[in-house]
Amino acid sequence: MASSAPIPAGPLVQLADLRVSFAGVPALRGIDLTVGRGEAVGLVGESGSGKSVTWLAALGLLPAKASVGGSARLEGRELVGAPASVLDTVRGGRIAMIFQDPASALNPVLKVGRQIAEALALHTDLSGAALRAEAKRLLDLVGIPDAGRRLDAYPHEFSGGQNQRVMIAMALAGRPDLLVADEPTTALDVTIQAQILDLLRSVRREFSMALVLISHDLGVIAETCDRVAVMYAGRIVEEAAADRLFEAARHPYSRGLIGSLPPLSGPRRRLTSIPGIVPDPRHLPTGCAFAPRCALALRSCAEADPALGAVAPGHRVACLRADAAAATLPPAPALPVGLPAGIEVQPA
Ligand SMILES: Nc1ncnc2c1ncn2[C@@H]1O[C@H](COP(=O)(O)OP(=O)(O)OP(=O)(O)O)[C@@H](O)[C@H]1O
């Protein structure tokens, strides 16, 4: 629970060389990322790039067979290898996480009011009528009409979007400093997706909370986030302010993702797709993992994996061909702010 203690200097969360492998197969290959207080950071990348594992590792939520190395600090306190007593206070209380499929995260045989109350009981001193009143307030806050009555409904009596609202209410119960939303809208209809993103933006403001939004949809990220980290095969390959990424992405993979977004205005154009598939983590190529799919790759790209280096303040890229990418690959479309998440435009 957020306290009135002085706010420590430095980032809220700092991941440094965070590494994860499963039975020797790498899933994360050294993630460096910071999240500032109140900041909204997007993590984007194809399926399997390591977006979810990054945050499951930081919160100690991976199965025991996962081998985790490197560091994940919350206000300077190390979470990797921290005892369960520390992680129990962090999870929900300081960092909450919501997932793609709310129906499977909720208990189908418990009324939603009881589930919100249980989350509140874990993180507050409330009990009895005060607990129920706070559960109703949270349900109201996340936009469930007639919240007092709906406390006594079961998850199957709610729509998918409403269940995601319930999950957000439960996540807010501990007044976390950071909400990690892992593909929160992927399972929902397009119109509902936009409403849930609106809700995330408004609760972030209301709770002065940082947000990490995980999505494979760059449009969703652009609408919501201040900063974006692009992940590929267990690494961050580019990181920049959201508007800068759209205007001046320097990694061929990021430019490929942007090129696959429909333009908001101007002439329709053929959408590009990135050829090839994500490499099998058991057989990663030597050098840059994107090189086999990259139109600009040189022989040197297959020799060493480039480090994530600064190309401008706040803009880091891991690519030997970053200059060539900016000069030769198709220009990025306009920043898709306001684009309803997931809306597809037919290629011209
Ligand atoms: N419990 C697990 N056991 C073995 N491998 C795992 C486990 N969880 C994740 N992985 C592997 O770790 C890698 C990263 O997975 P992760 O779920 O983080 O990807 P992602 O970018 O979030 O993808 P998606 O968008 O599909 O959720 C993948 O290769 C995945 O197969």
From TrEMBL:
Major site of localization recorded for this protein: membrane
Annotated Pfam families: ABC_tran, oligo_HPY
Classification via SMART domains: AAA
Residues annotated as domain ABC transporter: 13-258
Gene Ontology terms: biological process: peptide transport; transmembrane transport
Protein's membrane topology: Peripheral membrane protein
GO molecular function annotations of the record: ATP binding; ATP hydrolysis activity
UniProt-listed InterPro entries: AAA+_ATPase (IPR003593), ABC_Ni/Peptide_Import (IPR050388), ABC_transporter-like_ATP-bd (IPR003439), Oligopep_ABC_C (IPR013563), P-loop_NTPase (IPR027417)
Subcellular location: Cell inner membrane
GO (cellular component) term, any one: plasma membrane
Keywords: ATP-binding, Cell membrane, Membrane, Nucleotide-binding, Transport
Signal peptide: none
Family to which the UniProt record says this protein belongs: Belongs to the ABC transporter superfamily.
Protein name per UniProt: ABC transporter ATP-binding protein
Organism this protein belongs to: Phreatobacter cathodiphilus
Lineage: Bacteria, Pseudomonadati, Pseudomonadota, Alphaproteobacteria, Hyphomicrobiales
